[in-house]
């Protein structure tokens, strides 16, 4: 990471200024953050420490903003003992609902697997030895990673060290759902400004998703280096078109991701009708269906001609 930062800095910075480094939480270790501080870089990331050791700054008031989907998000300054960085507690109601749904489905599958383990205790050939039962529970936790931390599991065993019962209870996680901490060395400026800065990394992540999934930048199956480079270059050119369209839409308040734009535009269809006239000529009529309201909004934002069009062309009889 140090080598990459230095190479990027040479190409993007002057002596008098250094860019802000956005660090993915997967590599935002204390050692990497210290390296950035030692080299004089500002940074921003999601705190890896979770939200277990923070304290709300009672001297500040929370700020409520809306995300791209017009969902409310609360921002409030927080502090973490032992750190000189600035922290912002982000509380998203939409994220909380999503996490509840995901953890609920995962926990249900986890509990079902634990229940099957419990039922095997009462079967003649079932696993009953205490260490074997916990090995099986460990494999279930590995299969449903994350769900195991949401349940407290207890067992009872007899004098022969055979398990006679398994019980489990769900832990309460409502206080943490939808919340995370932003960590930064940037000056303690307006929280809305810091949030807008952080959203740059979201745009970068969205870019990679579009390149990899929508534009099929990878995997690459070509046999020669020239063909592979052509594939990459065409993918980047395609993204220039994607980004231009998204930029123009954002100027009109339409903040959809590319996948959502494709979904909306796919609601308008091309209808092709073919008939054979009395002269044995095949006539093909191609005409678009009437655009829905969301499609019309995108056309207007891009200054596209809204007039419906059709093609009428006779073909010689075969």
Descriptive notes:
- With 318 residues, this protein is of the alpha+beta class.
- The protein has helices spanning 2-12, 30-38, 93-120, 130-143, 191-214, 225-251, 258-265, 293-301; strands spanning 20-23, 42-46, 54-56, 63-66, 72-80, 86-92, 151-157, 163-170, 179-184, 270-276, 282-288, 310-315.
- Among the domains are: 215-264, no CATH class; 267-315, no CATH class.
- 41% of the residues lie in helices and 23% in strands.
- Strands 1, 2, 3, 4, 5, 6 and 9 form a seven-stranded mixed β-sheet that branches. The protein has a three-stranded antiparallel β-sheet with strand order 10-11-12, with no helix packed on it.
- A hairpin with a 5-residue loop joins strand 4 and strand 5.
Keywords for this entry:
three-stranded antiparallel β-sheet; 318 residues; 8 helices; 12 strands; seven-stranded mixed β-sheet; alpha+beta; single chain; extended
